[in-house]
Write a structure and sequence with these properties.
This protein is mainly α. The protein has a domain of 32 residues. Helices cover 78% and strands 0% of the residues. It contains 4 helices and no strands. α3 runs antiparallel to α4. The chain is flat and about 55 Å long. This is AzlD domain-containing protein. Keywords: Membrane, Transmembrane, Transmembrane helix. It holds the Pfam family AzlD.
Length: 113
């Protein structure tokens, strides 16, 4: 009976070890960093650049149903969301709502297919 579930156990344990250990090491290292330290600034810069790289990939090379939308509409929605984010107090929710609203409005005015 246990033999048929052994592969699932291995996947769960290996997946947990591969991610959780790094999270704990990050917490331990992060507790030792000062708020304005260069190391923390570097970590923030790397994290921000990774998020922006994923966002740019989704805008320029989308998959799924977003792939059917025109590039100009995706670019317009992303730029308008970023401007709204900056202009209205750097609130992430504002940027997301503005971007999605423009994308939805564009798809309503210029339907796909």
């Amino acid at each position: 009976m246990i033999e048929q579930y052994w592969s699932y156990v291995v996947i769960l344990v290996a997946g947990w070890l591969a991610t959780d250990i790094w999270r704990w090491l990050g917490v331990l290292a992060g507790n030792r960093l000062r708020e304005g330290s260069e190391a923390l600034n570097w970590v923030k810069a790397v994290a921000t650049s990774l998020v922006m790289a994923v966002t740019a990939k989704l805008v320029v090379f989308p998959t799924g149903s977003l792939e059917a939308t025109p590039l100009w509409l995706r670019m317009l929605a992303a730029c308008a969301g970023f401007v709204a984010f900056l202009a209205l107090g750097q609130r992430v929710l504002v940027g997301v709502v503005v971007s999605l609203s423009i994308l939805a409005l564009g798809l309503f005015v210029f339907p796909m297919g």
